[in-house]
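Fold this complex.
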Amino acid sequence: MSEPAIRISAMNKFYGTFHALHDVDLEIARGEKVVICGPSGSGKSTLIRCINRLEEHQAGEIEVNGTPLDDNLDHIDEIRRDAGMVFQNFNLFPHMTVLENCTLAPVLSGRLNRAEAEKTAMRLLERVKIPEQAHKYPGELSGGQQQRVAIARALCMSPQIMLFDEPTSALDPEMISEVLDVMVGLAEEGMTMVCVTHEMGFARRVADRVIFMAEGRIIEQGPPDQFFDNPQNDRTKAFLSQIVGH
Amino acid sequence: MTHVIPASVPQPSFAEAIKGRYFSTRRDTIVSLVFAAIAIWLGWSLVNWALVNATFGAGQGDVCRENMHGGACWSVVSARWRIVLFGLYPFEEQWRSGLACAIMVIVAILSCVPWFWSPRRLPVLWVAGFAAFYILMRGGLFGLPEVTEQNWGGLALTVFIFAAVVLLGMPLAIVFALLRRSELPWIANTMALVIDTIRSLPLLSIMFTFAIVLPFVLPGWAIGDKLYRVIAGYALFFACYQAEIIRGGMQALPNGQEEAAKALGMTYWQRIGYIILPQAFRNALPPTINQIVITFKETSLVTIIGFFDVMASGRAASGTAEWNFATIEMYVFVGLIFFVFVFSLSRYGAYLERRLRVGTR
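Structure:
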């Protein structure tokens, strides 16, 4: 099991002529929890979205669980099934109930039959503490509840890696902790996690490694204690002082 | 205008409400009285014409002509309704045409029942309904005498053309909309060109082209009956408009919907079938109903190329020397038939909107 969960080497991403990611190298071990932070426009969301091909990279290599991410659609499907994703805006399917949101992908992919999928979904909804909402529509839930459903939905595919793209940025302040609690729980169970977030308390508590990005490059990375208490790079220092400054 | 009034505010009585709304100032009072007078006069004239002074009963043609009270002569409807409903269809076989229409209406009603809304049940229902309609109308099977398409007419023909156009046009519209959104620019651009070209042509010219010009171009085995060529042309026309409506519905969806489906490992067709299309159709429901209503009404254009749809049959029914004074009554009758269909369609559309709104709040 020495193979990393995610391996990115010399990856470059362009939007037209805009160079969004420069020569990114990153290895994430199984079970590792990585938090990526940085100013907006630094490429952190783009990076995480390249991992499951929501964005296509133009140069360099990405491997997830040993599967190379290339133009082979089977590889892309395999990687997407291995890596669950949670979005800033939840992106639940509004025309389906919470339960249907959770069972759709497992049933369509042939992983589980309907009964098994519903059982799994109910177990996971219980874990994110909203089993009683199973038959409601997403529009009837609060933002925090929707995001917890989104986490349960991703978990229903039994992913080995979870990608979080600013999962709490669209939430009202009083709902942030209910989502973070679920994420902490996941981390404690040993899930491999990559989180783009500004929740530095969460980073300090669960991250094995914090990565700071700016202008499409990884500027600095290290364990949270070192990263927060003794940052090396000036831009990291400036960024950290801005977030904790007020 | 309904306003939600909190429970604590006392509701005004009926008389008070009337007074407040229509008679609160002198000018309001004058306007209300003038328009009330006009409305009463119009209503009274209409009732007089349509009911009080009207003549009913099948054998009353001569009565109508002689005692002209200025009232309507509904005898023409009693005498000639079969022509309107069945056109040139042979008299003793007209029960088949009636039954076929009834089957189509039942299929349409059934497909409004949510139980049938599954990707399997709905197509089965419509294909079966259509087959039953066709066998009944065309005959030549199960001992039913054959009646060729040239002799189809009246309401049955209108219903057939309408149902065939929507049924062929809707899947085609979905395909067009998907091609129009293709990631390959040459496909998307070609589709856009095709859609824009066909939308810029008058429906009439498309029908003419398909009915009259196409036989010169196509190989013999591909020509088919004129009726099917017209339906094909009309379906293409419908598909181009409906494709843009569906595309509009797709564009209203946030990107995140497709991304979330991708991230869950769903394939292209799964994303289209379970995530994109159901939501796109919901967004596009009002214009879709609109398009379907227009399509139903414009079926009467087929008269121009020699078909006796319900509109043409109506004109034929009052076109004889015996009944030529009763044109208006005949048009009212035909108008009523259109009204029944179009009004039910709109009510159904409104019901769908209410029902589908559940998930969007």
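The beta strands of chain B are 308-309.
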